[in-house]
Amino acid sequence: MPEVILTTETIRRLLAAGNGDSAMLYLCRAAGLSEVVTGFSESRLENAALLLRQLGLDDSRSPRFIQPAQPPEYTDEDVRRQMELPRSGFRKLVGEVQRCLSKVLNVDELKILLSMEEYLGLPGEVVNILVHYCVERNRLRGTGRMPSLRTVEKEAYHWADEQIDSVEKAAAFMQSETNRGQRLIGLCKLLGITGRRLAPPEERYLLAWVEMGFPDEVISLAYDKTCENTGALTWKYMNKILESWQSQGLFTLAQIKASDRKPAQSGRGGYQRHGETVSPLMQDAVNRMLSEQEE
């Protein structure tokens, strides 16, 4: 049986996800014990695997679409034929998407929608959830406008790549992304960012700090220290603070405060107190002094 080595970063990602199925699946795969999860239903297993991919902890498969390949050139006749089929699922999808986007789709947009179903292989129910997801994402970002079909198409390639091709997997993905979006909104308020969208680099910083496993109160402390030392929210400076804490294994306020107190406890006025542990630097200095005295 192979030895399983878990890094602190992996453990924190699994704990932050709060999903026992994904943690069990990760451990079983790492140990080569796939038979342990045979009791999972297919949908339960797929949802656990999807969450691992979102956490960046699943490299067990190759993407279905490495890059957006050129889809077939659909014609007006292709669209008309699909719309006129008896009990047309495509016609039903068009109606639902138009209601969601509050607009009538033109022929080019209908071709994009048809491509999602026929070329990418996403069921109509999944495409409908995808459109609602893109609308909700814009709302959380505060753009104030509906997404274009081209924007939806770009996200559809991502879903196809991640094999989000069932209602259950689409719902799980939406819930995960909604939770992440709400966390970003909370962090924006914490950092005093209101009335505007995050710039892409700013969003990447926030997502990185969330993935590091820092709670809001620690990020707030890093923000306070940044403002004290630079006079404003300086993203690179604040990121250095959090990266430093991460490298030292400091992830809670208690750990950080305890670390900050250590230098002060080494002795006041240059004196070593009885019972205190001598630091390596001080011990080295003492050894050099004794050596010089012996010589």
Question: Which tags fit this structure?
Answer:
295 residues, flat
Q: What this model shows, in words?
A:
With about 300 residues, the chain is mainly α. The protein has helices at about 10-15, 20-30, 40-55, 75-85, 90-100, 105-120, 125-140, 150-160, 165-190, 200-210, 215-230, 235-245, 255-260, 280-295.
How many DSSP helices?
Answer: 14
**Strand residue content:** under 5%
Q: What integer value in Å does the Rg equal? A: 27 Å
Main sheet properties: none
Order of helices and strands: HHHHHHHHHHHHHH
Q: How does the overall form come out from the CA principal axes?
A: flat
Task: Tell me the total number of β-strands.
Answer: 0
Structural class: mainly alpha
| Poorly predicted runs | 62-68, 264-279
Measure the end-to-end span: 57 Å
Overall pLDDT level:
80
The helicity comes to 55-70%
Question: What secondary-structure arrangement, pairings included, does this model have?
Answer:
Blueprint: H1 8-17, H2 20-31, H3 42-54, H4 76-84, H5 89-101, H6 107-118, H7 124-141, H8 149-161, H9 167-190, H10 200-212, H11 216-230, H12 235-247, H13 253-261, H14 280-294
Summarize the structure.
The protein is mainly alpha-helical and 295 residues long. It has helices at 8-17, 20-31, 42-54, 76-84, 89-101, 107-118, 124-141, 149-161, 167-190, 200-212, 216-230, 235-247, 253-261, 280-294. Helix 5 (89-101) runs parallel beside helix 7 (124-141) and helix 9 packs across helix 10.
